[in-house]
Amino acid sequence: MTAAPHPVVTRLGEDFLTQTYGRTYRYLPGDAKSLPGLPTWDDLNDTLAHHQRLTYGTTLTIESFDELHPGTQDLADSLEATLRTRIRVDLHASCTATATHPRWDAHDTVVIQAGGMKRWKIYRPTLNHPTARDTEVPPPWEPTATHLLTPGDLLYLPRGWWHAHPTPPEDGQSLHLTCAITPTTGADLITWITELPEELLRKDLPSFGTPQEKQRTVDGLRELLTNALTDGTLIDRYLQHQDAHAPVRPRPSHPYTTRIPATDPDLHARLLTTRHTLGLTPDGKARLTAAGRTWTFAPAVLPLLELLTDRAEHRIKYLARSTGLTRGQVAKVVEELMAGGIVAVRRHQAGVG
């Protein structure tokens, strides 16, 4: 059983990746009841009472809210699994009327209105695919669209699309999430190539060498890059590398920090990583790479790892029954992955199996 995608991912639509992502904005009206787990004003108040990661002003911002709120963490995990890139979710709250000038972001954004309402003016980009290093002046043309977001509405903006908030409704109250989607660019790919274990890339440049020595270095670098860029599998290999090194949002497993009681019928395990690589080594052993680490197990463990990588929560006894392993064997694997920070364990009566 694979963990169901978050309702926000479902709402974006099956054609989102092929027709919208990185191409154009999309406004998706909806009902807040169809998006369970969104933060409420009470959640905000509880967070303010316990955390200090805030930016005060007319609008209050809590950065990386996905690290503080379970429902928002589930949203970020589901988006990461779908888009194969890092997601950071910030919460923004305002209780008074505010207006802003046009601005753009160096990343794509999914906006989710959780409470109140906020008006968005959207302008086409003045520079396609900008990065954080670029500077642009506001567009001289009129906005492409204006939308008043109410609870449950979604808005997707590619990076570089300008947006502004004119004077909002009279009460001015708004509670919304912005999901920042880290771009994966050609520059990132080239940087990865330059980090490959090649001696020529590690050598000092011949800063004080002869013209001939400098030319040989340039020729060698050109050949290395040319050979890498003629490999049709390069992008897929780079994405697999990114998947294998994607960071994990931690979830504590107290009181189970080192060992777990395998005989407990209500003990559940869940893989925390949203991206990973799983397969067999040349000698047939099961290999899981996640969060920059690699674990190798006996071949019989592969079905267990395949079950865990669906990101659903499973009872230990179900994992044993489904894979032919004993509960003790399952517990040993789970303990090893838990020690690596990529599995969380908790005890409750709900869950798969």
Describe this protein's structure.
This is JmjC domain-containing protein. This protein is α+β, with helices and mostly antiparallel strands. It has three domains: 175 residues, Cupin (Jelly Rolls); 45 residues; 81 residues, 50S ribosomal protein L16 arginine hydroxylase, Chain A, Domain 2 (Malonyl-Coenzyme A Acyl Carrier Protein, domain 2, 3-Layer(aba) Sandwich), CATH 3.40.366. The protein contains eleven helices and 16 strands. The strands form four sheets. Strands 1-8-5-10-4-3-2 form a seven-stranded antiparallel β-sheet. The protein has a three-stranded antiparallel β-sheet with strand order 7-6-9, with no helix packed on it. Strands 15-11-16 form a three-stranded antiparallel β-sheet. A hairpin with a 5-residue loop joins strand 12 and strand 13. Helix 9 packs across helix 10 and helix 10 crosses helix 11. The longest helix is centred in the middle third of the chain and has 19 residues. The mean pLDDT is 91.
- The name of the CATH architecture of the largest domain is Sandwich
The CATH superfamily of the largest domain turns out to be Cupin
CATH topology (fold) name of the largest domain: Jelly Rolls
The CATH class of the largest domain is Mainly Beta
Query: What is the average of the pLDDT values?
Result: 91
Q: Main β-sheet: number of strands, strand sense, barrel status? A: 7 strands, antiparallel
* The number of domains: 3
Total number of helices: 11
Query: Radius of gyration over alpha carbons?
Result: 24 Å
Which ranges are low-confidence, i.e. pLDDT below 50, for 5 or more consecutive residues?
none
* Number of β-strand runs: 16
Helical coverage, percent range: 25-40%
Keywords: Iron, Metal-binding
InterPro entries: JmjC_dom, NO66-like
Protein name: JmjC domain-containing protein
Pfam families: JmjC_2
